[in-house]
Amino acid sequence: MNEDDLERLVTTPMPFGQYAGRVIADLPGHYLAWFARQGVPQGEIGRLLRLMYEIDHNDLRGLLAPLRR
After folding, report:
1. Which helix (H) or strand (E) holds 59?
2. Does pLDDT of 8 surpass 80?
């Protein structure tokens, strides 16, 4: 993880599914947990979903607040 990854969490929209269009940082915890159980997609989106799940699971969403525009 690096600073660019955190920036991507607050700028990259979810490309599909129930929350399509919502930035990854705003996805609800239960949705992130579902991906963690069922498996995340391959590629960049999957990597960001795993990172966001860890941030949410460890109650660290506040770290993203300064990065929001």
Report:
1. none
2. yes
